Design the sequence.
């Protein structure tokens, strides 16, 4: 009977490789427990019971841990989106109607436009609210805006 359990171990292991989750491996471990039990008893009911209980216990106790380990950590903002939420200095008057304006943030010069249709004068401190194409969307408000999730 141990050969059937060994075959099930292999089937569940291959199924785990094929499927994107982390669930079927515990059936393989349960099959291993059933195989070990088959060395001590020939009773198929006892072996199957050990398989079912051990698989359920492994799934119940390790599934939350596997989900926690598989969770994606907080996204690290890189490249252009790394300037969102930062202070900048206006280098050239920002006029969204005429599509003019430049800011300097983190030592880089960016084309900029206003969040609304206001005109922001040179040397004004602004906050970068978002990136729209190749332009930074800014606001001249005196308090830092609430950052949105990117």
Sequence:
């Amino acid at each position: 009977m141990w050969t059937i359990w060994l075959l099930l171990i292999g089937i569940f292991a291959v199924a785990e490789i094929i499927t994107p989750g982390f669930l079927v491996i515990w059936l393989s471990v349960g099959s291993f427990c059933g195989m070990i039990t088959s060395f001590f008893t020939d009773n198929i009911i006892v072996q199957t019971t050990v398989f079912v209980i051990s698989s359920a216990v492994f799934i119940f106790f390790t599934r939350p841990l596997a989900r926690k380990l598989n969770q994606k950590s907080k996204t690290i903002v890189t490249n252009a989106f790394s300037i969102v939420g930062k202070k900048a200095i206006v280098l050239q008057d920002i006029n969204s109607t005429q599509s003019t304006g430049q800011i300097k943030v983190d030592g880089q010069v960016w084309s900029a436009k206003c969040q609304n249709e206001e005109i922001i004068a040179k040397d004004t401190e602004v906050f970068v609210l978002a990136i729209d194409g190749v332009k930074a969307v800014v606001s001249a408000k005196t308090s830092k805006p609430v950052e949105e999730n990117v």
The radius of gyration is 30 Å.
